[in-house]
Amino acid sequence: MHTSPEGDRPAPADRDPHVTGPHAGYDRYGRFDHYYYRCERCGLESTDPALVRGCPRCGDAPGGPDA
C-alpha cells in the first residue's frame, strides 16, 4: 500500500507489489540523504527507481534470472 494525504491506496498497475518505497535514507548525522526502494522477497535495496518494475536479483522482473 502507498500512503497519501487521502489515505492508503493500491500500488499502480505497472509496479511490482513486492517492492516498497521510496523510503528515506539518512547520512550518519541523521540528515536526509537519498530515497531507496526495497524488494521484500530478497532484501535488495537500491536507489534506482527502476526497481519498482521488478527485482532482477530474485527473478521477479521480466528478463531476470528465472526468465
**Poorly predicted parts:** 63-67
Q: Specify the structural class.
A: mainly beta
Give, in order, the helices and strands.
Answer: EEEEE
Number of strands: 5
Radius of gyration: 13 Å
Distance between the termini: 27 Å
Q: What is the approximate shape?
A: elongated
Instruction: Kindly report the average pLDDT value.
Output: 79
Helix content: under 10%
Walk across the major sheet and give the strand order.
3-4-5
Taking the sheet with the most strands, its summary is: 3 strands, antiparallel
Number of helices: 0
Strand content: 35-45%
Per-chain topology:
Elements: E1 2-4, E2 7-9, E3 19-26, E4 32-39, E5 45-46
Antiparallel strand pairs: 1-2, 3-4, 4-5
Structure description:
The protein has strands spanning 2-4, 7-9, 19-26, 32-39, 45-46. The chain is an all-beta fold and 67 residues long. The protein has a domain at 15-53. The strands form 2 sheets. It has a 3-stranded antiparallel β-sheet with strand order 3-4-5, with no helix packed on it. The protein has a two-stranded antiparallel sheet with strand order 1-2. It is elongated, with a radius of gyration of 13 Å. The protein starts with a strand and ends in a 21-residue tail after the last strand. Residues 63-67 have low confidence and may be disordered.
